[in-house]
Amino acid sequence: MKLENRTISPLEKRLLQVADETIAAANQADSKDNALRQEALQQFKMMGLPTKRAEKWRHTDFFEWYQKPFNPVTEKEPFTTEVNDIFECTVQGFDSNVVSILNGHYYSPE
Q1: What 8-state DSSP symbol labels residue 49?
Q2: For the segment 70-110, what is each residue's pLDDT rounded down to a tens digit?
Q3: Are 48 and 12 in contact (CB under 8 A)?
Q4: Residue 30 has what pLDDT?
Q5: Which is it for the CA torsion 84, 90, 95, 99, positive or negative?
Q6: Residue 92, SS3?
Q7: Contact 14/70 with Cβ under 8 angstroms?
Q8: What is the pTM of this model?
Q9: Largest Cα–Cα distance in the chain?
């Protein structure tokens, strides 16, 4: 479905704006990453956010959620919580690795 043929929510408009700004700011950066961003943005413009018209989402009401304002997190927030306070593997003999990502930023255990 093309962008012009469907209704676009305020959230989707804001996501598109943020994506355009991010790509414009990254133009001086790695062109391979920027090419991937451009490709992802084109896919998002074609698909958009889920709606009830899609079979998998037909019983989900997104309307209220899509009307809320969206402000992207641009800076890494301090994260002082110990991962073991959030997650502890209690399965005996099971080795696990935990990856901490908060608002799109990776947090190392060190």
Answers
A1: S
A2: 777 777 788 777 777 877 778 888 887 777 787 777 877 66
A3: yes
A4: 64
A5: negative
A6: coil
A7: yes
A8: 0.59
A9: 55
